[in-house]
Amino acid sequence: MALIEVEELTKDYVMGDVVVRALRGVSLEVERGEFVAVMGSSGSGKSTFMNMVGCLDRPTTGVYRLDGVDVSTLDRDERAAIRNGKIGFVFQGFNLLARTTAQDNVELPLTYAGVPAKERAARAAAALGIVGLAQRADHMPNQLSGGQQQRVAIARALVGEPPLLLADEPTGNLDSTTSDEIMGILTRLNAERAITIVLVTHEPDIAAYSRRIIVFKDGHIESDEKNKPRGART
Amino acid sequence: MWATFVLAVRGFSRHRLRALLTALGIIIGVGAFITMVAIGAGASAKVAEGIAAMGTNMLIATGGASNVGGVRGGTGTSGSAALTDDDVDAIVHSVSTVKFAAPLVSTNAQIIYGGANWATSVTGTTSDYLDIRNWGVDSGEFFTAQDIASGAKVCVLGVTVAQQLFGDDDPIGEFIRVRSLSCQVLGVLTKKGQNQMGQDQDDVILMPYTTVRRKLFNNGGTQANAVSRILMAATSASTTGAATRDTLALLRQRHHTNEGDPDDPTVRDLSEYAKVAEETTRTTTLLLASIAAVSLVVGGIGIMNIMLVSVTERTREIGIRMAIGARGRDILTQFLLEAIVLTAAGGAIGMLLGTIAARLLAQAMGWPALLDARSYVLSFGSSAFIGVVFGFYPALRASRLDPIEALRYE
C-alpha cells in the first residue's frame, strides 16, 4: 500500500462568476520512503495539489488516501489531527512563531497532540539534535540565521515522527550554500529515517536532489520521471 | 491548557502598554465598583450609626396644633389636644409595646455662670429620656424621681454647655443661672455628637420637667400638667409599628378625637426616618454601582476591539498553528484564554486600586470603608465573565480562519 494514493483529484475555485479549474484530474501514488520533487510554473496547479496532499484543503472530486485512510472527506478538525500526526510541514518562509524559542517552536505540534510536557521537551531536544541545533534551543527565531531557522522548522516537522514530510520551496529564501545544507539534511532524513518527502520547487538544482520529479502543467501532471539524485554535500 | 496560559501571559509581557490600555476599562470598572460599593456601605453604616445615636426604636407624640385666635401652630400645650402627664402614665401602663415614655417640655434659655454665658435649649424630662436616647451620664449623677416630684432646681449639662460655661473646670455641684433661676449642676452627659441634620446634640441642658414647667414656663391652671411632647421607645425595632398604632389609638380615645377627624395629638415613628435614610443610601449605592457596571461593559468592548486587531495581526501565526495540527477549538481556547487572562488581571488590578481608593475616600469623608468580600467576588467574576463574552467573538473568528489563507497572509 502506497503512502499517498490520489485518484482523479479535481479542485475548482469559484471566483465570482468564473470557475477556476486548478486541478483537472490528477492520479498518482507515492510509496513510502520516496523523495519526490513537484515542479511546475505558477498557476500549474502544484500549490493546489500540495494543499490537498497536506490536508489543508479538500478536493472538489476524487479520492485521496494518506497512509490507507481516505482523508478527502474529513472535516476541519479531523484534517487538523491528520496534519498533526501524519504530516510535517516545511515552508519557504520558515513560519516559526516569533518571539518563541526554537525549543518551544519545535514542541508546538506535540502540544496539540497532547503529549505531556516532559516528553515534549525531550523529544523536541532530540529533534533539534538531528538538525544540529541542540546548542540553539533557547534562541529566538530572530537570533538565528535563515538556514538555522529552516533547520528549526525541519525539527518541528520531524518531532511528531510523521511518515510524510511536505516541503514547499524550502530553499526559496536561502542562498545556494545554505540551500545545499538544507537539502543535505532532507536527503539524510530520507535515507536514514525512511521519511517520505514531497518537495515543491521551481529550481531544477533543488529538484535534482530527489529521486522522482513530477511536473505539473495546467492542472494536470505533464511528466513523472525517475531521477538519479545528485550527491548531497552535508 | 497551561502552556496556552503561559503563552498568553508571555504575549502580554511583550506588549505591556497595549495590554495595560486594553485592560484599563476593566481596571477602572472594577476599581469604581469596589470603591462605590464600599463607600456606599460605609455611608449606610454611618447613617445607621447616626440613627442609633439618635435613639433606638423611637416614637414621638406631639401635642396637637394649638389654635389661638385662629392662628394654628404645632406642639400646642393648651386645649383638648395638649398632652399631659396623665397621657404619659396611660401610655406606660396600657401600651405593652412601649418600653419607656418620657415627657418633654423644652424652651430656650440664656445660661450664666460667673462671667460666661451661653444660649442653649433646656429640656425638661425624666430619667427615661436617657434610656430612650441611648444616653448616659459621664460624671456626677442624673436627677432622681424625688427631684422630679419636688420640682428641684437641679440640672444635668450636655458636654458642649459644660465646655462653654466651665471650660476645663469641674461643673458638678456648681450653681448656674437659667434665666433667673438658680440651678445646681448634678452631672454631665456623655458626648453624643452631631445628629443627622448636623445639629450638636450635646448643646443641651436637662432638667426635671416639673421644674421647667413651674419655674421657666410659670404654667398654672389648665396647663399645670401639660407637656409639649412625649418621647417613647418601642420594645424592639419590629414593634415600632404596633407601638405607634396602639399609642395613637389610646391618645385618640383619651382626647376624644371624633372618628374621621385627623390625629391630634399625632404619633410618629422615628425609625421611619432611619428607613428612608437607609433607602436613600441604598439607592445611591445602587446607582453608583450601575455606573461602574456600565464602565465594565465599555471595558469589555475595548477588550473585544483589541482582540479583533490581535487576531488580524496574528493571522499568520494562526495559520502556522493550524498547519501543524491546531484544531479550531485549540485556537478558540487560546484566544479566549488570552482575553480572560487580560480581564482577570485587569480585574485584580482594579480590585487593588479600588480598595486603595475606597480607603482614601473613606478617610477623607470620615466614613468607614466597608469592603465586602461579596463585591470582590462579584466584580472579579464579572470581569472574567466579560473576558469570556467579549473575547468569544474574536476567538471564534480566529478559529474559523482558513489555514491556507492564513498562511499566505503577510
Summarize the structure in words.
The complex is a heterodimer of chains A (234) and B (410). Chain A has seven helices and ten strands. Chain A has helices at 46-53, 76-86, 102-113, 117-130, 146-158, 176-193, 204-207, and strands at residues 4-15, 18-30, 35-39, 61-66, 69-70, 87-90, 164-168, 196-200, 212-217, 220-226. In chain A, a hairpin with a 2-residue loop joins strand 9 and strand 10 (220-226). Chain B is built from 13 helices and 14 strands. In chain B, helix 2 crosses helix 11 (328-365) and helix 9 runs antiparallel to helix 11. The two termini of chain B are 28 Å apart. Chain B has a six-stranded mixed β-barrel, surrounded by four helices. In chain B, strands 2-3 form a two-stranded antiparallel sheet. In chain B, strands 4-12 form a two-stranded antiparallel ribbon. Chain B is α+β, with helices and mostly antiparallel strands and 410 residues long. At the A-B interface, helix 2 and helix 3 of A face helix 1, helix 10, helix 11 and helix 13 of B.
Biggest interface between protein chains, with counts per chain?
Answer: A-B, 26 and 20 residues
Order of helices and strands of chain A: EEEHEEHEHHHEHEHEE
What is the mean predicted local confidence, pLDDT of chain B?
Answer: 84
Write down the Rg of chain B: 34 Å
Side by side, the strands of the main sheet of chain B go: 5-6-11-8-10-9
Number of strands of chain B: 14
- Largest sheet of chain A, described in full? 6 strands, mixed
Structural class of chain A: alpha/beta
List keywords for this structure.
heterodimer, A: 234 residues, alpha/beta, four-stranded antiparallel β-sheet, 7 helices, 34% helix, 28% strand, B: 410 residues, six-stranded mixed beta barrel, two-stranded antiparallel ribbon
Topology, element by element:
The complex is a heterodimer of chains A (234) and B (410).
Chain A: E1 4-15, E2 18-30, E3 35-39, H1 46-53, E4 61-66, E5 69-70, H2 76-86, E6 87-90, H3 102-113, H4 117-130, H5 146-158, E7 164-168, H6 176-193, E8 196-200, H7 204-207, E9 212-217, E10 220-226
Parallel strand pairs in A: 3-8, 3-9, 6-7, 7-8
Antiparallel strand pairs in A: 1-2, 1-4, 4-5, 9-10
Helix pairs in contact in A: 3-4, 3-5, 4-5, 5-6
Chain B: H1 2-14, H2 16-54, E1 58-62, E2 66-68, E3 71-73, E4 83-84, H3 85-94, E5 98-113, E6 116-125, H4 128-132, E7 137-140, H5 145-150, E8 154-157, H6 159-166, E9 175-178, E10 181-189, E11 204-208, H7 209-216, E12 226-227, E13 229-234, H8 240-254, E14 266-269, H9 271-313, H10 315-323, H11 328-365, H12 373-399, H13 403-408
Parallel strand pairs in B: 6-11, 8-10
Antiparallel strand pairs in B: 1-13, 1-14, 2-3, 4-12, 5-6, 5-9, 5-13, 7-10, 8-11, 9-10
